[in-house]
Amino acid sequence: MVDFKFIPQIEILSAEDGPRRRHWSDADKIKVVEESHRGHRQVSATARRHGICRSLLTVWRRQYRDGELANASAPAFVPVKMAPDIDAQSPQRPTPDVQLEILLRNGRRLLVPASVDPDALAKLLPILEGK
After folding, report:
1. pTM higher than 0.85 for the full model?
2. If we measure between CA atoms, which residue out of 73, 74, 129 comes closest to residue 106?
3. How far apart are CA 90 and CA 64, in angstroms?
4. Do 78 and 101 touch, CB atoms closer than 8 A?
5. Integer Cα distance of 64 and 2 in angstroms
6. Segments of 4-128 assigned E as strands
7. Per-residue tens of pLDDT for the chain, all 131 residues
8. Number of CB atoms found within 10 A of residue 110's CB
9. What contacts 125, CB < 8 A, 6 or more positions away?
10. Could you write out the DSSP letters of every residue in 100-124?
11. Rounded (10°) angle between helices 54-65 and 43-50
């Protein structure tokens, strides 16, 4: 005899039961990215440790490199001291071996001689920062 009264049991899953999408702050992203830069072959291991996929960590690393992640510890303004006015009749140029080190927002360092033309440097900096 065949039983035609089979009623399958149905389980209803709601979106509230499953894990929700996590929202990472920029500070947390920066911590994870900096952890992934330590050592050799740490991208996949770091991603597994924090429960994210490797491609997301790769995106965060690119954003970090391009300066798109806001870093609360990075200064927004750097104090500058202006030298007193120098007599126009005897302009003193810095010696050629004096160099200025400029740390760009994307993490690159730029070494320029102290005698560099400020207008040329102002045109060069946006290009090097990728803007």
Report:
1. no
2. 129
3. 46
4. no
5. 66
6. 99-103, 109-113
7. 566 777 777 777 666 656 667 888 888 999 999 888 887 777 888 999 898 999 999 999 999 888 888 764 555 566 677 777 666 555 566 555 788 888 887 778 888 888 888 888 888 888 887 76
8. 16
9. 102, 104, 110
10. EEEE-TTS-EEEEETT--HHHHHHH
11. 110
Taken in order 22, 28, 29, 35, the sign of the CA dihedral is: negative
Q: Which amino acid does the sequence have at 98?
A: V
Phi, psi of 33 (to 5 degrees): -65, -45
Cβ atoms of residues 116 and 100 within 8 Å: yes
Quickly tell me which residue has 């597994």 as its tokens: 48
Tokens 């033309």 identify what position? 117
Structure tokens at 21: 């999408």
Write the burial class of residue 26 (CB in 10 Å: 0-12 exposed, 13-18 middle, 19+ buried).
middle
The token pair that represents 103 in the structure block = 């740390």
Tell me which amino acid residue 100 is. Answer: L
